[in-house]
Amino acid sequence: MSWSGNVRAHEAVGTGKRVGDFLPSRERRLTVLSGPSGVGKSTVVAELRRAHPQVWLSVSVTTRRPRPGEVDGVHYFFVDGEEFDRLVESGELLEWAEFAGNRYGTPRQAVLDRLTSGVPTLLEIDLEGARQVRRSMPESLLVFLAPPTWEELEKRLRGRGTEPEDVIARRLAAGRIEMAAEREFDLTLVNTDVKDVCRRLIALLTDPQGVTTITNREV
Ligand code: 5GP
Predict the structure, then answer these.
(1) Which of 26, 93, 191, 213 could bond to 105 as cystine, CB 3.0-4.6 Å?
(2) Which distant-in-sequence residues (6+ apart) come within 8 Å of 204 by Cβ?
(3) Is 112 helix (H, G, I), strand (E, B) or coil?
(4) Which residue has a Cα nearest atom 19 of ligand 1?
């Protein structure tokens, strides 16, 4: 495990890999952002899109229906179950998982193309997907987005005010499982401030060697 200042980084379980390892210069390492539902991943991604268009965010395929304001090909590629099956069977997805009754997956070729041409590349995916990426691309960097406290996560989930209590309870139960997986990740960013998290992510994506100085969890 390596610590530096107010920094928290952990050795990924079972990989023997330490933060700071990175690919030969021609190819960039893939960065994965994951964390419990309600922690603010999509807000972080929206801010990255707005402020750092040089970073390429993979657009996932999903069987979920679009929410108001979501654009096909921008936020997701919205497909039906049959098309999703086809993508899985033909090996076109780098990883995929089921989440809350819908399926989500990362188109493989688009990611490989960006990595080969040296474009900083980020996936925002769930824990199951992050584990698959860990297995298939062990050189990737897995970043865990954590809430400042468990109480804060609960407050944020309830604060949306849109979900009934049983749905909140299910998400909180899933959140507990996801929080328990934190140490499978290479490092943790605590989401106390969206702009701060984005700044640290950008540093990770564009300056992998600086990685040990940009996590932010107090030891
Ligand atoms: P939402 O429906 O709120 O947009 O996303 C639900 C969950 O699916 C989030 O945790 C999000 O990170 C995850 N997710 C989005 N795209 C992918 C993907 O391509 N693969 C996996 N494994 N999870 C994804």
Answers:
(1) 93
(2) 31, 141, 143, 210, 211, 214
(3) helix
(4) 105
The total number of residues written for the chain in this structure: 219
Tens-digit pLDDT profile for residues 116-149: 999 999 999 999 999 999 999 998 999 999 999 9
Question: Is 106 a pocket residue for ligand 1 (Cβ < 6 Å)?
Answer: yes
Q: How is domain 18-58+119-218 classified at the CATH fold level?
A: Rossmann fold (3.40.50)
- What's the number of CA atoms in the CB half-sphere (13 Å) around residue 206? 11
Is 0.70 surpassed by the pTM of this model?
yes
Long-range own/partner contacts, residues 197-201 (CB < 8 A, 24 or more apart): 197/40, 197/44, 197/145, 198/44, 198/47, 198/48, 198/51, 198/52, 201/31, 201/33, 201/44, 201/48, 201/122, 201/143
- Bridge partners (DSSP) of residue 19 are 21
The CB of 95 under 6 Å from ligand 1? The reply is: yes
> Looking at ligand 1, which residue's alpha carbon is closest to its atom 2?
64
Domains in the chain: boundaries: 18-58+119-218
Q: Is 97 in the pocket of ligand 1 (CB under 6 A)?
A: yes
Strand partners, 189: 145
Contact 99 CB / ligand 1 (< 6 Å): yes
